[in-house]
Amino acid sequence: MIQEILESNQFIMLMALLLIVSIIVTKFSSRLGVPSLVLFIAVGMLVGNDGLGFIYFDNPEIAQLIGVIALIVILFEGGMLTKWKDIRPVVAPSITLATVGVVLTTSIVALAAKFILHIGWVEAFLVGSIVGSTDAAAVFAVLKGKNVRPKLEATLEAESGTNDPMAVFLTIAFIQLLTIDQVNLFGLVGSFFWQMGAGLVVGAGIGYLASLSLNRINLDSSGLYPLFALGFAFLSYSSSSLLQASGLLAVYVTAVVIGNAELAYRYSILRFHEGFGWMAQILMFIILGLFVSPTEVFTWPVMVDGLLIALVLIFIARPVATLLSLAGFSFTMKEKYFLSWAGLRGAVPIVLAIFPMLAGIQNSQLIFNVVFFTVLTSTLVQGSSITWIAERFKLVSDKLGNPIHSLELISIGKANVEMIEFDVTERNIVVGQTLEDMELPDRALINAIIRDGDVITPYGQTEIKAGDTLYILVARKNKKEVKKLLEAIKEEEAEHEKSRA
């Protein structure tokens, strides 16, 4: 028994070191210009069986399960941060990229895979379908903190959040063609539309139910609200999956609905899921790093094949698919080139590459190894240069937005009031106004102003200046009115935004 306790303690110590090392890695990833997910995978490969040998892991079922659970958490966190007002104008091009774009990318990559890997046509299309979609985890992680124009950022996030159904549909379809003698093609097409439609409906319905529940059910602790919200994320995925619909699409839609609703404990929910999203990314990519065998992937045949497919994907398939898919939409050529370059591959293709293994398909190990190296190349090349490309094409916004945060007050949680924290910029119309000039609702009061590091006690003649941080106590029913007043921008700024759009 003592031996078992010692082994469990050693495992806990290893997990602690992996978590600490992985978080420290995120600090240096931006300085190195390398996406953090690549470094997480490297950590997994380092401690795996082909590395230092601390952990032996080769179970595809567990790897696939952990990957799906982590993707649910990451999609949920990213969806809650997505603003509907930003993605509404780009819904049509995003869905076109997520459907037509994936099919075009799959076809071009399949043509290359057929002759590069010397495999059959169905297997080649299986490879193309696996790497055909962009990855939400990679896109959300790389774009976070980057000052890319909202229109382009919204298009990429909406595309990556909605293109998983097409990739999963194509992957499963070609696996069935390889494993089943007679496949009903019309049934497969109908299944795709059902997955998209039912996933959308289930996601929207559960998102609406979650928003009502989060606002109307008074829990004993504010710390329970983030877990309550997370429960709806898993409910959305499982309900949709049981209906043979797209669970990942349902999760993303649920998150968008929740994130754009008025939530009583928004700040606690978002901060919890930001940290939990990072945990999910770290766990997922370390597990994928453990699962891969570096001695098999980093061989000359696999690396050459993977590099050739990656070059076709990055410089031919994705650009052609993007240009054709967006032909009828109002994007400039520079914006189309940027959207093409920012179509990152990540966890989803690697998780999908496990599916052929689970199905027992011939050449499944070769497919996984090539896909892994292709994704690694795509992430390194494209992910590390997104900011440079955006700046080169002058597709960077002048300033980051100034989000409104709600600071939940635990002691007065039952009083239905919140403390709003708002950072004032030069764009806001309230700049130059005194507190007497501001038309705040009756049950709203500016309690404090932080200016140049000092706390200012406000009074009627206090003038609002750019750079101030306002702390406003407001009744929840008046929160929307206060947000509208604070977020109003000057007319010249509004005209500037319209001209740039």
Keywords:
501 residues, 5 strands, 2 domains, mainly alpha, Na+/H+ antiporter like fold, coiled coil, 5-stranded antiparallel sheet, transport, ion transport, membrane, transmembrane
What do you see in this structure?
One of its GO terms (biological process) is proton transmembrane transport. It is found in: Cell membrane. 42% of the residues are buried. The longest helix has 32 residues, at 185-216. The chain contains 22 helices and five strands. The N and C termini lie far apart (67 Å). It is mainly alpha-helical. The protein is globular, with a radius of gyration of 24 Å. The chain is 65% helix and 6% strand. Strands 1-2-5-3-4 form a five-stranded antiparallel β-sheet. Helix 3 (60-80) crosses helix 11, helix 5 (91-117) packs antiparallel against helix 15 (300-325) and helix 15 packs antiparallel against helix 16 (333-341).
